[in-house]
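Support request, please re-run this one:
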Amino acid sequence: MPDKLASGCESKKRQSRNNSYMAQLIDDLLAYFDAHVDELLGKYEGKVVLISKDKEVSAFDDFKTGYDSGIKNYGYGNFLLKECSRAAINAVHVINPIVAIV
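Re-run finished. Output below.
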């Protein structure tokens, strides 16, 4: 029984570290968007922008296409999708700790 308890504790620690990493990544990518908002609006206004953890930027007509591309090219949880419009600049929608639409 102690082995299962120890295993459960390790699992919770890994999940906590992963959630912390994801929160930091989201913060970093939002900060990148904010720092480049004028440039991004100039190029991509009306589009959905994808920003990878390596700060590569792509633009799409809708969230689904952007999400599918992000999963294919960067993997789950390694990118941010954000509507690039003046009206949506401050909107954030958290689906779960790993997926947020901002």
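The chain has three helices and five strands. The mean pLDDT is 82.
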